[in-house]
Design a protein that fits this description.
heterodimer, A: alpha+beta, 2 domains, six-stranded mixed beta barrel, two-stranded antiparallel sheet, B: 251 residues, alpha/beta, Rossmann fold, four-stranded antiparallel sheet, 10 strands
Chain lengths: 383, 251
């Protein structure tokens, strides 16, 4: 009877399309809004995503998240290097500075200062130029999106992206562009500029403590969390494995911003509206077909057979709606992947979205099943 | 407590000629002051190999009686045996399965599923008894061809005439070779000629040595197809006759 159930479902085109649209809408909103939420949350630890080489991040113990920056004394680096289990440790600067463009405009920048000797902490992918060029005088490497958007050079015939050799003025210091890189999009929309750690300290306003982070590599076989705890115990500094620091950062944003509430509201609305539209239409579809279900019952269809027919119908429209909704959400994410659009679609989200749509289908089917199971076969003779 | 395992073999028994045996059947809808007595002690046998018509005014209990005979409704009191089985004493699922194999239905409003073709509609009783899709469809097409509908196999109900629809409904009732066929007002929406044709089909294909047909009708023009006619009034059988002419003069 499965084929009969599907033919009945698809035979009523108007209702079939309405149910599919309702579920597609629900699936799209749930997937897209949650995907954007995850995308934004992932951006809060984008620097860590680009620095997979570091196992442990060391910082001032009061730091609550990645952009909550307090300086440490440079001497802390040597204390950390001395902790048992540390393979290497390098300084890493992260801070905001202001750049003055050639035409006089100002633009805030996120400055990453990487270890002068090893260049550990550099961008994950160079698009133009060489990372080693950072050792040249006044050299900086700029992220490609920043270079083509907020740092464009204004000329007589219009704006043009930054080029190698262009000069910026960062906090009254001359900076020469020597390359462009691709980075994971950050939470803020400011351009990202890489330079050596010593130059970053030189460009930044002078303070007594200027070392925000120490990146640590653990020796082979050393548990990252144990080593972080050891560093904390010995130095008194804050030390987290990369995974723990990501969690700490995301947790801060979840607790202290309205982002989860806003996106949660949209996703919940999608779920509720989708449930209402699909539920109402599917229920009407069942009501319209009640006399045929009664006919089947008279002709020998047990409640189990009818239950399977309705569940099949519900999950068929659910699967189609989920596929379309998740597909559209993925397509939007794919088309806009190169811009500022924050969208992250891990398989867990697809699974959760499928589970939400399944929940809608189960609810929708349950209402209809109740009606059909209670149906007396005798009603078929009542005309 | 109802039993699920007390059904007798469906195979025809030489000694068993009674298809349906009703004794003291009463049916009351509602209760108290609102109680409606639809049947008031019906005693009636339907023999295998006969076409029995139930006639009488509207509301006299004809449809209630065939519903009980076919096992889609339980009586309030009395006993109704279908090929020796008291369906009111059988568990719901077993009764439904037994009914699916044993009874063929032609409903007054036909109840053909509009989203299915003629062949697919006719295949449903076979699918419900476990026949696979292709085989069921093949048998359905054969049955429709025997009904003269070989060129309408893949037409939807909305594309068929009233007579053709009625023949599809009859094909659906016959396709799984049930031993009892119940028809509720099969000619009510048909003109005289088509009604006669439909009853000829029911008579020729439905009536067999080991099968009984019960037809509920108001239509005096088809009385002559019956072997016996049971006249009902106010929930009772008033009389049973083999002569349709007797009934034509009855006011």
């Amino acid at each position: 009877m499965n084929a009969i159930a599907l033919k009945m479902l698809m035979g009523d085109r108007a209702k079939y399309v309405s149910i599919i649209l309702g579920l597609t809408f629900a699936s799209l909103l749930i997937t897209q809004q949650t995907g954007i939420f995850l995308g934004i949350m992932a951006r809060t630890f984008s620097t860590m995503s680009d620095l997979e080489i570091a196992d442990i991040w060391v910082m001032d113990p009061m730091v609550q998240y990645l952009d909550d920056i307090y300086g440490m004394q440079d001497t802390q680096l040597y204390r950390v290097k001395g902790v048992d289990g540390v393979e290497w440790a390098v300084p890493f600067y992260k801070g905001q500075l202001r750049a003055r463009l050639k035409d006089g405009r100002f633009q805030s920048l996120v400055v990453m200062g990487i270890d002068d000797a090893t260049l550990i902490g550099g961008p994950p992918r160079m698009l133009e130029g060489d990372l080693a060029d950072l050792r040249r005088t006044d050299a900086i490497i700029v992220d490609s999106i920043g270079a083509s958007t907020r740092l464009t050079q204004r000329e007589a015939d219009g704006d043009r992206p930054l080029r190698i050799g262009d000069i910026l003025e960062i906090n009254d210091n001359r900076a020469t562009v020597v390359g462009f890189c691709l980075v994971t999009r950050p939470f803020s929309t400011m351009p990202i500029v890489y330079m050596t750690y010593s130059r970053a300290k030189q460009y930044a306003p002078q303070e007594r403590k200027m070392l925000p982070f120490i990146l640590v590599k653990a020796k082979d076989g050393v548990d990252h969390r144990e080593l972080a705890d050891r560093i904390h115990a010995i130095t008194g500094l804050g030390a987290y494995s990369t995974a723990d620091f990501k969690r700490l950062t995301v947790g801060y944003y979840l607790k202290n911003t309205a982002i989860p509430l806003n996106f949660g509201t949209s996703a919940t609305l999608g779920f509720l509206v989708g449930t209402a539209v699909a539920g109402q239409t599917f229920y009407n579809f069942t009501l319209d077909n009640l006399k045929y279900f009664a006919t089947f019952k008279a002709m020998g269809a047990t409640n189990g057979v009818l239950l399977r027919m309705i569940l099949l119908q519900a999950f068929f429209v659910g699967g189609t709606g989920f596929g379309l909704g998740a597909g559209i959400a993925s397509l939007i994410g794919f088309v806009l992947r190169k811009g500022e659009f924050a969208f992250w679609l891990p398989w867990q989200l697809l699974l959760a979205s499928a589970a939400a749509v399944s929940l809608i289908c189960l609810g929708v089917a349950a209402i209809s099943i109740r009606k059909v199971i209670r149906l007396e076969a005798g009603v078929v003779f009542k005309g | 407590m109802k039993q699920a395992s007390s059904l007798k073999d469906n195979a025809p028994d030489q000694a068993q000629t009674v298809a349906v045996s009703c004794r003291g059947i009463t049916k009351v809808y509602g209760s108290g002051d609102n109680a409606v007595h639809a049947l008031r002690g019906i005693d009636l046998d339907v023999q295998s190999g006969e076409l029995l018509m139930l006639v009488g005014p509207s509301g006299c209990g004809k449809t209630t009686l065939i519903s009980i005979m076919a096992g889609v409704l339980d009586q309030t009191a009395g006993q109704c045996l279908l090929f020796g089985n008291d369906l009111s004493q059988i568990a719901a699922n077993a009764k439904t399965a037994y009914r699916g194999k044993t009874v063929g239905f032609v409903f007054q409003s036909l109840n053909l599923v509009p989203m299915l073709t003629a062949a697919e509609n006719v295949a449903i009783p076979l699918l419900l008894t476990g026949v696979i899709w292709m085989d069921a469809l093949h048998h359905a097409e054969e049955m429709l061809s025997r009904m003269g509908l070989q060129d309408r196999l893949h037409f939807y109900p909305s594309e068929l005439s009233g007579g053709q629809l009625q023949r599809v409904a009859i094909a659906r009732a016959l396709v799984h070779s049930p031993r009892l066929i119940v028809c509720d007002e099969p000619t009510s929406a048909l003109d005289n000629v088509t009604g006669q044709e439909v009853l000829e089909v029911v008579r020729s294909l439905g009536v067999a040595k080991d099968r009984a047909v019960v037809v509920v009708t108001h239509d005096a023009r088809i009385y002559h197809f019956a072997d016996r006619i049971a006249v009902m009034n106010d929930g009772r059988i008033e009389r049973i006759t083999t002569s349709p002419q007797e009934l034509v003069t009855v006011p």
